[in-house]
Amino acid sequence: MKDLLFKRCIQLIMVAWGVGTLTFILMRSLPGDMAYRLAASRYGQDNFDSSTAELIRHELKLDQSAWSAYFSWLGDLLQLNLGNSMVSDLPVMDTLSHMLGHSLLLAGVGMAIAILLAFPLGLWAAKYGGWADRLTLLFSTSVRALPVFVIGVLLILVFSLELELLPVAGFGTPAHLILPSLALAISLAAVSSRIIRNEAKRVFDSSFFEFAQIKGLSTRKAFQRHGWRNLLVPVIAFFAIQLITVVEGVVMIESLFSWPGIGHGLAHAIFARDIPIIQGAALLMGIMFVVLNTLVDIISYYLDPRIKQEFSE
């Protein structure tokens, strides 16, 4: 376990440095004058002139060299200081921590609904096969072919505009959470249900499962005692791979439903060229990805004795 955590800590440091450096280079490579774009974000498109842009350039030290700015940023990062927003002048850490809570809420509810959808569908298809398998395959293929924001638009059209049951967008009540989390969950469940189906079928067809039934256990008892553990190890590993889909989906879903999370804030920061917010949001997403993968590794470590043996050697 210590080796696993040590490797993940090294990975976390490398991801933080890599994501931060890549974001810094990309932001510096954007066309246009950053000072003018920031002046427009602060005062409006028609309420500033060239002298205002020059003042902002001097105030935010945008006229310093790229290397000087990079090492200044790297030094601040080592002190866990992400700076202040170039538009609002609020600390980036405070702004992102406020957004992070909303993003985690959306991602957590979305993944919980996805699990509730994917497991029954996958087990149903594996157990009964035939038309049940073909029906779930059609669902999975059809949904997977749609980008997550298209699923969100379809839900808005049906439940908000046609049936008028749920709000189109915004935040404040539990009803505002239903459509964005459902859109994210449907997208995740489309593939997860097929992975669960394949793994469940592998368990049902295995010799150890057949032997458990020969011993006198019912199908349900055999699955509870011997099936779940074998099913969960590869499924949890797949959920770790899907975390990148969660991060991508959260960015698009938050923008579509005006959900005040990191993805929504990141989209606004990109339009406003608010570099500290962009770098901080990208950095936080990279760190979240490593932390969540570490949690999955820890769960797999306790579920699968082969992983314990691998790290003990």
UniProtKB/TrEMBL annotation:
Chief localisation class: membrane
The entry's keywords: Cell membrane, Membrane, Transmembrane, Transmembrane helix, Transport
Domain of life: Bacteria
Cellular component GO terms, alphabetical: plasma membrane
Cell compartments where the protein resides: Cell membrane
Protein's membrane topology: Multi-pass membrane protein
Tagged with keyword Cell division: no
Keyword Repeat: no
InterPro entries hit by this protein: MetI-like, MetI-like_sf
Xref: Pfam families: BPD_transp_1 (PF00528)
Stretches assigned to the ABC transmembrane type-1 domain: 100-300
Listed transmembrane segments: 12-30, 104-125, 137-161, 173-192, 231-257, 277-303
Similarity comment: family membership: Belongs to the binding-protein-dependent transport system permease family. OppBC subfamily.
Protein name: ABC-type transporter, integral membrane subunit
Source taxonomy: Bacteria, Pseudomonadati, Pseudomonadota, Gammaproteobacteria, Oceanospirillales
